[in-house]
Here is the input.
Amino acid sequence: MAEDEREGEGAGTIRQARRRSARQKKVWRRIRRTCYVLLALGVLLPVSAFAVGYLIWEVRSPQEVLAEQDKTVILQYSDGTELSKIVPEDGDRSFVRYADVPRKLRDAIIAVEDPSFWSNQGFDPMGIARALVTGVGGGSGITQQYIKKSTGNDEGSYERKFKELVLAAKITQQQSKEQIFESYVNIISFGRNTHGPAAAMNAYFGKPLGPDLTWSEAAFLAGMIQAPSVHDPAASGDEHAEKRWDYVVNKLTSRGYVSPAERAGMTYPGKSVLTPAETRAGRGSYTDFHLKRQVLAELEGHGFTLDRLRRGGMRIVTTIDRRAQQLSEQALRDRLTGQPDHFRAALVSLEPGTGRVLAYQGGRWGVRDYAATPHPPGSAFHPFVTVAGLLQRSGLDATFPAPEKAEFGGETFKNETDCARTDFCSVREATQVGADTPFVEMTRRFGARKVSDAAHEAGIPIDRDGKPTLRDADGVTIGPGIAVGRYPVRTLDLLSAYATFADGGVRTTPRFVSKVVNERGDVEWAPEPDRVPAFGPEIADRVTESLRPVPGGKELSDGRPAAAKAGSHRFPGTGDNAAAWMVGYTPQVATAVWVGADEERRLRDAANARVTGQTVPGDIWRTFMDAYHQGLEVRAFPGAPPAVTVAPPQLRAAPPTG
Here is the structure.
């Protein structure tokens, strides 16, 4: 019995063991299944989320992002060098194509920002893993940085990071690496309120981005990307900036872009880095401002609004000749030095036949553009009276009464200078001595409207700002004062009309723009000269003949043929002038100079002599024309006989000042 009981107990123990084993297996089975489920969820959920995000989240193309941003508009001289910029409010954005980013700079940026850029799928898994473990760095490559910048989402959340990964992978499938890099490098900030490498190169080194970029400069610029406000030597000093530069150079060396020998020859470019005040942005001038305004006005008239230019990151090649612009600035500065502080001046120079404005000086005294402000041209308007007569078969040797005073249209006109004979004067002599009364008589005979028509045909616009020119305030009446240049004209317009004489009677509209180029390098617009016959070459040649020699008896220094006319606008009730002109040309270039003041006043120079067109304006004109023509061939005027010299003008004495 006892034995049977023992056998029963043994069997029970075995059954209990089997039940425990079965329970344990069941528990472990549940644990395994749970682990499988958790493992599946851990893999499938992110994968599923990634797949769903890939399908529903739209990645904005680089072109779309860049198209929405205002970019820097660059104005260039005719030789392609930078003249000025129009910078958006959020900073300088000069678009640079991938092919135009120097290889050294591309390598430096990739070496320090995303060494696996060319091979990764939009992100670096190892870098992300390092970032999760260490908590710093490695988790945001170039493609992810572009996504972050393009979306404007910079919040520190896992959701944002996950979305970045998805979109980075997606854009990698849709765009080439070159396209992604191009968009990234143009959208990021390099500090100093710049976006893109071209703006950065100018801001830090004061020169354009080009193939001559050195490894040292490339390392410096690449080092700015991480934290521009921290690494800029202007903010943290050269010691800190050099440490950052060393870091980038070491990355370039360790990753094989730079050999140890090249590394040994590299030095920190701190001495070449400009302070913010030394960059072109810190050297803006009123001259640049005036030029910019003229260029934009011309472009807007042809459908290129400022908004369109900014969106397209347009590059505007102007007609301005860099050397001519510098010479014009120097001529004004040199000849006005020592003159009264209230003197103001303008100088414009253009190329006859093309209308290309070569130099434009609207004044350095403020936002007022004196070249764009209408001024009475005085006797510089006489040639248009001559044209009216020539069109009615009255030649240069025709004589007209030249009294000291003449009545016309209820007004009294007085000569400032006399002809050799005070009773009659030829057109030729009256032009050269600047006598007014013969031109008053000519206007009486030929008709004030004919004089106005001649000036308009030559190139003075029929209207300005919606109002008729060369008319009284009613817009209809042409007063007798047109004979002596009382109606104000702009310096550019008067010069354009004189350039018609230089080009044999063919009128060409002045222009400041040579071509407009978009950010891809395609020419959007390249205007051609609009040459329109104004009057026959025989008329133009006779006018040129009447304008030779240059007033004051001084030809250009090398003796080359030139034609010019002095003019002055008198200060009422005195023998002094309120403003004075010199306008003239050679076959190659036409130039106009105006000298006056902000308000009408008696102009007396530093020696207390009255200012006429032959004095201060004439000095500026000759200084510029002599300098500009150096090295140019000497050309004769077609169809014009040699200059005829007449007796010098007899200047009437001015009343004493006081």
Q: What stands out?
A: The first helix runs from residue 2 to 56. Confidence is low (pLDDT under 50) at residues 37-43, 130-139, 153-157, 653-658. Residues 38-66+101-175 form one domain. The radius of gyration is 39 Å.
